Amino acid sequence: MKVHVLTYGCSANQASSEIMIASVRGLGHELVDEKDADVVVINTCTVKYATEQKILFKIEDLGHKGVDVVVTGCMPQVQLEAILEKNPDAHILGVNSIAKIGKVLNVIDDSRNGGSRERVQLLSTEPEGFLKTAHSRFNPNIHICQISQGCDYSCAYCIVTIARGKLRSFDADSIVEDVRMAVSEGCREIWLTSQDNGQYGTDRDVLLPELLRRIVAIPGNFKVRVGMMNPFSVTPIIDDLIEVFRSDKIYKILHLPIQSASDDVLKRMNRFHSIEETNVIIARFKEVFPELTIFTDIIVGFPGETDEDFDRTLEWVKEIRPDKVNISRYTPRPLTKALEYRNIDSRIVVNRSNKLHLLCDEVKLGSKQKMVGWKGEVFVSMDAKVKGVMARTASYKPVVIPEGSVQPGSSCNVEIYDTTSGYFLARLID
Predict the structure, then answer these.
(1) Helix (DSSP H) and strand (DSSP E) numbers for the chain
(2) Which class for 295: exposed (0-12), middle (13-18), buried (19 or more C-beta within 10 A)?
(3) Between vectors from CA 244 to CA 242 and to CA 395, what angle results, nearest 5°?
(4) What is the rounded distance in angstroms from the CA atom of residue 160 to the CA atom of residue 70?
(5) Fewer CB in a 10 Å sphere around the end CB: N or C, the chain?
């Protein structure tokens, strides 16, 4: 059959799609553009209302066109009725069941060749098939390794915890072997992903710092990007985490979502940290890694957020000057605690969002301009989209080297001479 895999959402979803695409190819099916497909596998995300609505429209539209639809990702776990209302014939593959994509495709193939029409629904509570398996990578130099499924906390706005369930950390030996396989296949960047990397191992006997020590001990020339960690999961392991971050193989980047800089809002969100605790984490890391890159996430307009609460967030951005801020306008999600709260006027939310975007752009531009003239070593991770190669500083800042012969997996010294909205431009130096 002709199959298309459509991916929404986080890097964990991207990794799942890479695994499913490899399975599709292994079964002898053809990967094609959506317009040419007999079957479309939709790997869904339900974090935001707008994304959910886009996906539901796609599910319905493909059904009207006579295309077989397989829906996987988070939505089947929490919005199954909404999916089947839009397309009663949609096949369902739970977020933990991606290894069974072949079973679904076999049923569809059989029905297309005269067999009985049968709707498949596979929902499992335990994840399987995420490690030590074939990937058809979107970027051949980057391996995304999911290290756990689920989360043991219940933030009031978060539907993902409901969709993916309680924390199940994957076996450390299997993770290390998964990374070892990827490095042997030529991957030069390893992205560790989950719903909260900092929680890894709290349900087992190996915590994140020890897992990282084992990963960086793997022979080979590669770098590790540690994905998002909540402040409340970093605090208990901060000493060991900073120590292992000293490894040259780990990018000095901290993705630490604050969601708000107001403790009152954080309490209503059911977050288990204060903004001061977050600031301590950042200060501790910056003390050891002065060029640390900081990513964060902020929700604007959470129910009950006052002008004073929002001003605290603006002041925090001015003080901390994060390199990247993922800004979300709050929208209520099904099954969450915050669904009970009274929403703020949407015009206020839009105004606050626009104000925060402008400030973050200003901070980002100032930080970028300070990097012009910087000299140092970078790690070449992949070919650039247009010309040259894409490299990363030790703190994960993106650098394109348009001229010169350097290969992915190598290191070289450069001088940054210009910046664009997305990356720096650099020339090779001795």
Answers:
(1) 14, 19
(2) middle
(3) 70
(4) 20
(5) C
Instruction: Show the CA angle centred on residue 366, arms to residues 360 and 370, nearest 5°.
Output: 145
pLDDT tens readout for residues 82-139 = 999 999 999 999 999 999 999 999 999 998 888 778 899 999 989 999 999 999 999 8
pTM of the shown model: 0.94
pLDDT over threshold 90, residue 386: no
DSSP string across 360-371: HHHHHHHHHHHH
Q: Which amino acid is at 178?
A: D
How far apart CA 421 and CA 430 sit, in angstroms, is 27
Beta strands across the sheet bearing 293-300: 253-255, 293-300, 324-329
Band of residue 403 on the pLDDT scale cut at 50, 70, 90: confident
Residue 336 makes CB contacts below 8 A (sequence gap 6+) with 156, 157, 158, 159, 162
Record the tokens describing residue 239, joined without a space: 């000493």
